[in-house]
Design a protein that fits this description.
Helices cover about 35% and strands about 20% of the residues. It is α/β, with parallel strands linked by helices. Helix 2 runs parallel beside helix 3.
């Protein structure tokens, strides 16, 4: 059995995908990336990750529509989801976690750890305080 948490990272910025993939891998996560919400939805349905992190503004399907589609699917409805955006005055949908893209990797790692181990029946990251 593989206890490595599986994270789906959805963002159209290749540089950020690389930075956050490396950060997540340092935390011991297995990472799959998607460049837009449509690709992210397909991967989420196929892989059933332990955590999904999505940007808001993306081509083909934005992050808000992706969130709606994920929450409408019984298999993914309870998957932890972090909306990660540089939008200055963004208001996340009720019940969703919003994390501002400000380059604070420690806060990013902390929120990932909370999302993966915050009382859910999923994997946790013991190495992150």
């Amino acid at each position: 059995m593989n206890s490595q948490p599986r994270v789906l990272l959805v963002d159209d910025d290749g540089d950020l995908l690389e930075i956050y993939t490396l950060t997540l891998e340092e935390l011991g996560c297995g990472v799959t990336t998607a460049r837009d919400g449509q690709e992210g939805l397909a991967l989420a349905l196929a892989l059933r990750p332990d955590l999904i992190i999505t940007d808001v503004r993306m081509p083909r399907m934005n992050g808000l529509e992706l969130c709606q589609r994920l929450r409408a699917d019984e298999r993914l409805r309870h998957t932890p989801l972090i909306i990660h955006s540089s939008e200055p005055f963004f208001c996340a949908p009720r019940g969703e976690i919003f994390l501002h893209k400000d380059g604070d990797l420690e806060r990013f790692k902390h929120q990932v750890a909370l999302s993966l181990g915050g009382g859910r029946d999923g994997p946790s990251l013991a190495s992150v305080a």
